[in-house]
């Protein structure tokens, strides 16, 4: 990264790859950019313009004009994400975020396990209590109002 190269490295890398994979998912998912481009190119130029160059193609299904266009959009988007994350305001924010995260006292595995266990026991107790209260109220209401 261009701006303050080694500062906030992990936060900046996580931000870049998170945004890049989100963009990649939008490009190649089942109803994503590739499918939209395939239908659009098919309506413009017919089947000859939309034919597969390599079928099957790893990860993408087939390689055709729509897939290459989507990969171009992905490459351009990756470059723009990189440039945006290198802007001084954004880079400073990510650097500050990583600095603050280094100051956090993270819980140990034992603390996390005990907290998880406490939540599970509490939720189970509330589930049983509320189920019992609901059944009791239902029973009382059926006796008072008569079974319907």
Count of DSSP H/I helices: 5
Mean pLDDT: 86
SS class: mainly alpha
What is the N-to-C succession of helices and strands? HHEEHHH
Gap from first CA to last CA: 70 Å
Helix content: over 70%
Strand order of the largest sheet: 1-2
Describe this structure in words.
Helix content is 75%, strand content 5%. By secondary structure, it is mainly alpha-helical. The protein has a two-stranded antiparallel sheet. Helix 1 runs antiparallel to helix 3. The longest helix has 37 residues, at 109-145.
Outline of this structure?
This protein is mostly helical. Helices cover 75% and strands 5% of the residues.
Fold topology:
Elements lengths: L8 H20 L4 H17 L4 E4 L3 E3 L1 H21 L2 H16 L5 H37 L3
Antiparallel strand pairs: 1-2
Structural features:
about 150 residues; mainly alpha; 5 helices; about 75% helix
């Amino acid at each position: 990264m261009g701006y303050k190269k080694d500062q906030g490295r992990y936060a900046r890398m996580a931000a870049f790859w998170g945004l890049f994979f989100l963009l990649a998912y939008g490009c190649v998912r089942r109803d994503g950019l590739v499918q939209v481009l395939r239908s659009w190119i098919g309506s413009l130029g017919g089947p000859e313009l939309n034919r597969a160059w390599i079928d099957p193609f790893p990860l993408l299904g087939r390689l055709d004009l729509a897939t290459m266009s989507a990969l171009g959009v992905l490459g351009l988007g990756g470059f723009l994400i990189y440039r945006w994350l290198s802007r001084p305001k954004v880079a400073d924010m990510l650097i500050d975020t990583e600095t603050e995260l280094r100051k956090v006292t993270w819980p140990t595995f034992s603390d996390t396990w005990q907290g998880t266990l406490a939540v599970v026991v509490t939720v189970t107790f509330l589930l049983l209590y509320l189920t019992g209260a609901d059944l009791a109220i239902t029973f009382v209401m059926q006796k008072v109002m008569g079974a319907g």
